[in-house]
Design goal:
The complex is a heterodimer of chains A (about 120) and B (about 110). Chain A is mainly β and about 120 residues long. Chain A has no helices and eleven strands. In chain A, strands 2, 4, 5, 6, 9, 10 and 11 form a seven-stranded mixed sheet that branches. A four-stranded antiparallel sheet of chain A has the order 1-3-8-7, with no helix packed on it. Chain B is mostly beta strands and about 110 residues long. Chain B is about 0% helix and about 55% strand. The chains are: A mainly beta (about 120), B mainly beta (about 110).
Chain lengths: ~120, ~110
């Protein structure tokens, strides 16, 4: 499809396990973002990529969270030793340019993570 | 840290009523976007406002950016059940930062009853 694709759509894991969430942005979009959303709430910024580099990682909650982007395309968000408070929907978005001043973010449908 | 206070958090109205959602901050934003999100989907952009005092209309939706670019409002006229969803405002930082970090409000859950 032409939109942002995220997988898995749902992930249930046990506390202490590692999880990987994948984002495939719109082709040609240089900027990629990860946000976290708790039930019915606003979005919490996690990390931003411009190409393969991450100029802003300030939103990552702890060192258990990491993300990478390869080939200026697919990105993976990894959460190590998951905790129950990590349960949320993880949203990925991409945009054509690296500024949000007027650019539109195109969001995927999200990966719902549940940590038991 | 830039914060966006969005209100009300919940809004439950009857079809045909009017409503306004507010987004306020003590910070200046270079632009402000409004998104709508339906369950199980990602947010979808409704509008971007850039100039202080700007008013944009999208059918029954009217968006306004405050003169000082610190606040915005979304007004819906004659709400319909199809307007039901989570409405999010998001501000882009003013200044020389050239990256795409948007600060989102907490969201307003709108329910329009037939």
């Amino acid at each position: 499809g032409a939109g942002v694709s995220q997988s898995p759509s749902n992930k249930v894991t046990e506390k202490g396990k590692d999880v990987e969430l994948r984002c495939d942005p719109i082709s040609g979009h240089t900027a990629l973002y990860w946000y976290r959303q708790s039930l019915g709430q606003g979005l919490e910024f996690l990390i931003y990529f411009q190409g393969n580099s991450a100029p802003d990682k300030s939103g990552l909650p702890s060192d258990r969270f990491s993300a990478e982007r390869t080939g200026g395309s697919v990105s993976t968000l990894t959460i190590q030793r998951t905790q129950q408070e990590d349960s949320a929907v993880y949203l990925c978005a991409s945009s054509l340019v690296g500024t949000a001043n007027t650019g539109e973010l195109f969001f995927g449908e999200g990966s719902r993570l549940t940590v038991l | 840290t830039q914060l966006l206070e969005q209100s009300p958090q919940f809004l439950s109205i009857q079809e045909g009523e009017n409503l306004t959602v507010y987004c306020n901050s003590s910070s200046v934003f270079s632009s402000l976007q409004w998104y709508r999100q339906e369950p199980g989907e990602g947010p979808v952009l409704l509008v971007t406002v850039v100039t202080g005092g700007e008013v944009k209309k999208l059918k029954r939706l009217t968006f306004q950016f405050g003169d000082a670019r610190k606040d915005s409002s979304l007004h819906i006229t004659a709400a319909q059940p199809g307007d039901t969803g989570l409405y999010l405002c998001a501000g882009a930082s003013a200044g020389g930062t050239s990256y795409g970090k948007l600060t989102f409000g907490q969201g307003t859950i709108l329910t329009v009853h037939p």
